[in-house]
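During the no-cost extension, the postdoctoral fellow (Dr. R.K.) reprocessed legacy sequence entries with the updated structure-token encoder. One reprocessed record is reproduced below for audit purposes.
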Amino acid sequence: MINTSDGSKDNSSSVPLMVVENGCGSPCIDLRQVSSELAAAAKDADLIVLEGMGRALHTNFNAQFKCEALKLAMVKNQRLAEKLIKGNIYDCVCRYEPAS
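Re-encoded structure tokens follow.
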């Protein structure tokens, strides 16, 4: 885990904002198969931010979370734009979802 305020590594759960690797080399992310570090960090998360077409749209657009979620992406495929958002290629998606 990286404390974004000073860049130091910290295992404390009191870090207000963290960036954690997902353990996956693909632009998509299967949340059933993430690194143990990410699973532990996300356990008590207040907000999940999924950024990019692969993570926010392809694999998690309809995923529901126990905490708030923000899904951000630019759609770079016309078929996907029409199917998911009834839009056009290069439209941007900013989808906020409250905790379920």
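The mean pLDDT is 84. The two ends are 26 Å apart (CA to CA). The remaining legacy entries will be reprocessed before the final report is submitted.
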